[in-house]
Design goal:
Layout (H helix, E strand, L loop, with lengths): L1 H13 L10 E9 L2 E9 H7 L9 H11 E5 L2 E3 L2 E7 L3 E10 L6 E6 L9 E8 L2 E7 L5 E5 L1
Parallel strand pairs: 1-8
Antiparallel strand pairs: 1-2, 2-6, 3-4, 3-7, 5-6, 7-10, 8-9
């Protein structure tokens, strides 16, 4: 019976071409790696090319860096950090940007994030994942909630 129900839902979704890409979101993962604090961003390249004022069909470090600086801010323990784009990896429909945030900060007390990345895309969300101080926390930001402050 379970197989029949799953098959029915699969067939219903197959007939809806928009269901393939239902979840419109970008993830921002702040992680401690060794002696540095990194930011990894995974996003839909098609939406970036359409809505982020990209100059071409290829996402360059320069275009991405300008847009990221314009649409996000990262403040840790009262100090604003500017992400430095190290690499951009394009895959099938998604792109991953790897950024350096800072040298490792011991015992982070607070993180403030303002994020309007691709919020001009209908029903887009940004998922902020903080993997710091040996603790994992995640938050969803969207048009009505564009900022968070997290205390540790």
């Amino acid at each position: 019976m379970k197989i029949l129900i799953v098959t029915l839902f699969a067939l219903l979704n197959f007939n809806n071409p928009n269901s393939i890409h239902e979840s419109i979101s970008a993830t921002f993962n702040v992680i401690e790696r060794g002696h540095v604090l990194m930011l990894e961003i995974d996003f839909d390249d098609e939406n970036f090319i359409k809505f982020a004022e990209s100059k071409s069909l290829h996402i360059s470090k320069e275009d991405f860096s300008k847009y990221l600086l314009k649409t996000t801010s990262w403040i840790i323990d009262g100090k604003e950090l500017i992400p430095k784009i190290l690499d951009i990896e394009s895959g099938e429909h998604h792109t991953k940007a790897i950024c350096f945030l800072s040298k490792k900060i011991e015992n982070i007390k607070s993180v403030q994030v303002k994020n309007e990345f691709l919020l001009n895309v209908e029903s887009h969300s940004n998922i902020i994942m903080l993997d710091i101080n040996n603790t994992f926390k995640d938050y969803r930001l969207y048009k009505e909630r564009r900022e968070i402050k997290v205390d540790y």
